[in-house]
UniProtKB/TrEMBL annotation, chain A:
It is found in: Cell inner membrane; Cell membrane. It comes from Sneathiella chungangensis. It is a multi-pass membrane protein. This is ABC transporter permease subunit. It holds the Pfam family BPD_transp_1. GO terms for molecular function: transmembrane transporter activity.
From TrEMBL, chain B:
Keywords: Amino-acid transport, Cell membrane, Membrane, Transmembrane, Transmembrane helix, Transport. GO terms for cellular component: ATP-binding cassette (ABC) transporter complex. InterPro entries: AA_ABC_transptr_permease_3TM (IPR010065), ArtM/GltK/GlnP/TcyL/YhdX-like (IPR043429), MetI-like (IPR000515), MetI-like_sf (IPR035906). It holds the Pfam family BPD_transp_1. It is a multi-pass membrane protein. The keyword Cell membrane applies. This is ABC transporter permease subunit. Residues 13-205 form the ABC transmembrane type-1 domain. The chain crosses the membrane at residues 12-37, 70-95, 151-172, 184-208.
Length: 217, 218
């Protein structure tokens, strides 16, 4: 218990890093992913295949390998980034790929009759997208998005493997210093739990209310 | 030079991939057993068991697998259980993915119409028989795509054992790149190897789904 009290400020500081990293990842990945998703529907023939290839490549590789590739290749290409910016970039690339799929799926799930009626009313393509399809797609994509955010928060723990200091790395440091793995690691797991569980809970409730539950994840 | 370099390092990286595959096979095996226990617990008649299994499932799903691995690797020796690093990896993978599988199993079982249970009971079958020979086969067929997806995720997650120093593909690449100074090239190779491996797995899952569609029409 004393160990925990001593280590708590250090862990809290680390938890702040994790929260900061997660929030930044989620916001940026959502922004990039939504743009990619919309583009792949709007310009099906130009961007569609490109974005599919991007998603295929990102999804085929474990996130840890992606972190290694990016972290060690940025300097080779003359990009000397801050540690946090480098891993943030990787997480955003990864998250955007997953989110673009969700957004694309949600837009395509809106019944085609909606597009046809909008065309009949004389709306332009981007008007159909912004006024007709997106507002309806937003409803159905929130639960899977929240599930994905949980996944992304957990993914931020992987950056500890390349030595970026956040909650998981701090937990490891403290464990090695104090030799009390259960106390420290379980406390840190509770930190993550406290972040992820509410998000998942909200997601599940919305899912039930919206009556759409394709994603078993 | 690059070709020569690929030729020299590829066997080591593939050996790492083979280790990943081995981890994945054991991981999947234990994940299925663990998921089965969890589902049994969640469907139990006794509220404490039900609650305990739900807490376990949530805990496994909402904490990073890396920390679960550290608990097993650094913690178990203190309480007198010494597992090899390899089996710590297997246990951590099975712990998290088993919880995901448990949710899939539960969803699949619940998705089968309750009337079928009533019909089975009305025909005079035991509850156990109804479950194992009527509900479960249908549920398994329904769950196939989700299970396949989870297996691929588990395979990709095997890379986390690099964090406890097991020489799987990523760790091998790290060591080799430190020896040779080829900074990112080896990691790119690992990425390509994984893309190929997961695509093959994806094709196998797709093939199974094709069989399923032709046979059962779903």
């Amino acid at each position: 218990m004393d160990i925990l009290i001593d280590a708590f400020p250090y862990l809290a500081k680390a938890a702040f890093q994790t929260v900061w990293l997660s929030v930044a990842t989620i916001l940026l990945a959502t922004a990039v992913g939504s743009v990619l998703g919309v583009m792949s529907v709007l310009y099906k023939h130009v961007f569609g295949p490109l974005i599919s290839v991007y998603v295929f490549l990102i999804r085929g590789v474990p996130i840890l390998v992606l972190i290694f590739v990016a972290y060690f290749s940025f300097p080779t290409f003359g990009l000397y980034l801050n540690d946090y910016v480098a891993v943030l970039l990787v997480l955003v690339f990864y998250g955007a790929a997953l989110i673009s799929e969700i957004v694309r799926g949600a837009i395509l799930a809106v019944p085609y009759a909606q597009t046809q009626s909008a065309q009949g009313l004389g709306l332009r393509r981007w008007q159909i997208m912004t006024y007709v399809l997106l507002p309806q797609a937003l409803r159905s994509c929130i639960p899977p998005l929240l599930n994905n955010y949980v996944h992304l928060v957990k993914c931020t723990s992987f950056v500890s493997v390349v030595g970026v200091w956040e909650l998981t790395l701090a937990a490891r440091e403290v464990t090695e210093r104090t030799g009390a793995p259960f106390t420290i690691l379980l406390t840190v797991m509770l930190f993550y739990y406290a972040i992820c569980y509410p998000m998942a809970k909200v997601g599940r409730r919305l899912e039930r209310n919206l009556g759409s539950s394709e994603e078993a994840l | 030079m690059q070709l020569y370099y690929i030729e020299r390092t590829l066997p080591d990286l593939l050996a790492g991939l083979a280790l990943s595959a081995e981890l994945a096979v054991f991981g999947i095996l234990f994940a299925f057993i663990w998921a089965w226990l969890l589902v049994g617990g969640q469907r139990s008649q006794l509220p404490p068991i039900r609650m305990a299994s739900q807490v376990l499932v949530d805990f496994a799903r909402y904490t990073p697998v890396l920390l679960q691995l550290f608990v097993l690797y650094f913690g178990l020796p203190l309480i007198g259980i010494t597992l090899s690093a390899f089996f710590c990896g297997v246990a951590a993978l099975a712990f998290q993915q088993g919880a995901y599988l448990a949710e899939i199993f539960r969803g699949g079982i619940n998705s089968i119409d309750k009337h079928q249970v009533q019909c089975g009971v009305a025909l005079g079958l035991k509850r156990r028989t109804v479950f194992y020979s009527i509900i479960l086969p249908q549920a398994l067929i329904k769950m196939l795509p989700a299970i396949g997806n989870q297996v691929i995720l588990l395979f990709k997650d095997t890379t986390i054992v690099a964090a406890i120093g097991i020489m799987e593909a990523t760790m091998t690449a790290k060591v080799l790149s430190e020896q040779s100074g080829a900074t990112y090239f080896l990691f790119l190779m690992v990425a390509v190897i994984f893309i190929v491996a997961t695509s093959v797995l994806g094709l196998v899952v797709r093939y199974l789904e094709g069989i399923r569609r032709r046979r059962y029409g779903i």
